[in-house]
Amino acid sequence: CERLEHCQGTNYSFKGSAHKQAGVGNVLIKSSQGQFPITQNVTVVEGGTANMTCRVDYNDNTSLQWSNPAQQTLFFGDKKALRDHRIELVRASWQELTIRISDVSLSDEGQYTCSLFTMPVKTTKAFLTVLGVPGRPEITGFTKPATEGDVITLTCTTSGSKPAANIRWFRNDKEVQGTKEVNATGKSFTVRSSVQFQVDKRDDGVAYTCSVEHVSLSNPYMTTEVLEVHYAPHLEITHSLIIPQEGQYFKLECISIGNPIPEPVLWSKDGGELPDTERMIVEGRELTITTLNKTDNGTYRCEASNDLGTSSAEYILFVYDPNALGQHGPDHALIGGVVAVVVFITLCLIIVLGRYLARHKGTYLTHEAKGAEDAPDADTAIINAEGNHVHAEEKKEYFI
């Protein structure tokens, strides 16, 4: 044969120098050690494109072949063996065989084989992993509107993921825990997560968001359900003046909270209709008295209702005489001055008393007070001390 690499399977004897025989031996060793296919595992998202590459460091013009997990030949060298329009040849040489699989599906996943047709045939495996993209999530289980006190179960569902997707719940911006369920459907998974809670008026307008996370997604898929909760009304009355006086402009507003909105708002005074509709003007939730007088004293009531109930609020109005307030009203400046003087005097007394006690912590009696200075002996001193005890206070001596 003309070339050494074309002489496989045939016994040859070489008649030449030892140097030439050694050279042939080296070539054979390199051929045996270097002829081994090298592949890499590939991961691709469903619907994407996968490139499968097989290389050899050294090849003596032996063909490379790619086979699918079913051991069907895809390409033998540059020759296409399987009729699949999605599979194309990228590069074919003695050192490399690369093929491309387009529009990859979950069924394409598996172990692919690259074969080098030496004697014996050498093979290497490469695993193609196909990621199933989860479908857009859907939230079910909520029918608008809910009524305060109802128990609601929200369920978020996504299908087609591989591996199984992860679902997270958020109440507005705060994460809440859900109950997860995973079911296999062929090679992909259907994932469901549910949250259950009892609604009240604080849930009205709250957004519950389902977030689907998966390795195939750069950003999570999200869907949101905004709750609508109906609840009974609650009313409060606000007023424009702290001390209403005759002749002033005065306004009452009935603040109503409820869903549906409680309306209309009805105003009354002392259990009856408003007595002076010329001065007492009702505009929606507001009651305005243009000029206050003493006849406006009384209990004002606003009332409103919706489908779930009725609520009311009351305000007792007392109109002050501005002249009487000026004559008999308390002189706040005078009161403040008196309080300041009392506090100052009290502090001065505490300081003086403290200094006095600090300087007079104790007393003692001298020998002169006890009469011991005139006693010839101890017994007489004791007797004198007892006799002169009544004069002790006169000779008491203080120390600092």
UniProtKB/TrEMBL annotation:
SUPFAM superfamilies: Immunoglobulin (SSF48726)
Membrane topology category: Single-pass type I membrane protein
InterPro entries, per the entry: CD80_C2-set, Ig-like_dom, Ig-like_dom_sf, Ig-like_fold, Ig/MHC_CS, Ig_I-set, Ig_sub, Ig_sub2
Cellular compartment(s): Membrane
GO annotations of cellular component type: membrane
Spans through the membrane: 333-358
Single biological process term from Gene Ontology: homophilic cell adhesion via plasma membrane adhesion molecules
PROSITE patterns, per database record: IG_LIKE (PS50835), IG_MHC (PS00290)
Keywords: Disulfide bond, Immunoglobulin domain, Membrane, Repeat, Signal, Transmembrane, Transmembrane helix
Pfam families with a match to the protein in the record: C2-set_2, I-set, V-set
Source species, domain of life: Eukaryota
Domain called Ig-like: residue spans: 37-129, 137-227, 233-318
Protein family: Belongs to the nectin family.
PANTHER family on file: CELL ADHESION MOLECULE 2 ISOFORM X1, IG-LIKE DOMAIN-CONTAINING PROTEIN
Name of the protein described by the UniProt record: Cell adhesion molecule 2b
The organism of origin for this protein: Seriola lalandi dorsalis
